[in-house]
C-alpha cells in the first residue's frame, strides 16, 4: 500500500501544482509521502524484530492463565508459584509449579495438572504449558529456583 500512496501522492502533487500554480505544494506533498514511507518502514522493521524476539505474554493472556490457576486453587485447595511466560512468534510458553496436598497420590496430582494444562491451552490457543508438581506442605516447594 505504501507504493500506492506514493504514486497517489506524486499524482496529487502534479495535479495540485498545475491547477493552483502553487509550487510549494510539490515539496510539501513529497515530505508527507516520505513521512509515510518512513512510518511504514518503521512498522515493518518493528514487526519483523518482534517476531524474532521473545517477550512475556500479553496482559490479557496472563490474566487468562492466572484465572485458570486461581480457579483450580479455590476449587481443589492447591497452590501454584514460579509462573513464567514468554511469547515467541505465535506461540505462548508457560511454566508453572503446581503444589498439591501431601496426601495426594502422584496419579491424582498428574491428572489435575493434565486438566490445568488443557484449560490453559483452551484459554490461550497456541500455548505450550509445562508444569512441575510439588507437595504443598514442603517448605522447599515455595522456593523459586534461580535461573542461571
Give a written overview of the molecule.
The protein is an alpha+beta fold and 148 residues long. The chain folds into 2 domains: 51 residues; 84 residues, Cation efflux protein, cytoplasmic domain (Alpha-Beta Plaits, 2-Layer Sandwich). It is 56% helix and 20% strand. It has a 3-stranded mixed sheet, covered by helices on one side. A hairpin with a 2-residue loop joins strand 1 and strand 2. Helix 1 packs antiparallel against helix 2 and helix 3 packs antiparallel against helix 4.
Structural key phrases:
three-stranded mixed sheet; alpha+beta; 4 helices; 2 domains; 148 residues
CATH classification class of the largest domain: Alpha Beta
Strand order of the largest sheet: 1-2-3
- Quick check: average pLDDT? 87
Estimate nothing, just give the exact number of structural domains.
Answer: 2
Query: DSSP helix count?
Result: 4
Binned strand content:
15-25%
Radius of gyration: 27 Å
Lay out the secondary structure.
Elements: H1 2-20, H2 25-52, H3 59-76, E1 79-88, E2 91-100, H4 106-123, E3 127-135
Parallel strand pairs: 2-3
Antiparallel strand pairs: 1-2
Short description:
This protein is of the alpha+beta class and 148 residues long. The protein has helices spanning 2-20, 25-52, 59-76, 106-123, and strands at 79-88, 91-100, 127-135.
Amino acid at each position: 500500500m505504501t507504493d500506492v500512496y506514493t504514486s497517489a501522492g506524486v499524482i496529487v502533487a502534479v495535479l495540485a501544482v498545475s491547477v493552483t500554480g502553487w509550487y510549494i505544494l510539490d515539496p510539501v506533498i513529497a515530505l508527507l509521502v516520505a513521512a509515510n514511507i518512513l512510518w511504514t518502514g518503521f512498522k515493518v522493521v518493528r514487526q519483523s524484530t518482534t517476531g524474532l524476539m521473545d517477550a512475556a505474554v500479553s496482559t490479557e493472556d496472563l490474566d487468562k492463565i492466572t484465572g485458570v490457576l486461581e480457579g483450580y486453587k479455590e476449587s481443589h485447595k492447591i497452590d501454584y508459584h514460579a509462573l513464567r511466560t514468554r511469547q515467541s512468534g505465535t506461540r505462548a510458553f508457560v511454566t508453572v509449579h503446581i503444589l498439591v496436598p501431601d496426601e495426594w497420590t502422584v496419579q491424582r496430582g498428574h491428572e489435575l495438572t493434565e486438566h490445568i494444562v488443557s484449560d490453559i491451552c483452551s484459554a490461550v490457543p497456541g500455548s505450550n504449558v509445562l508444569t512441575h508438581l510439588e507437595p504443598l506442605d514442603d517448605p522447599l516447594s515455595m522456593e523459586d529456583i534461580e535461573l542461571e
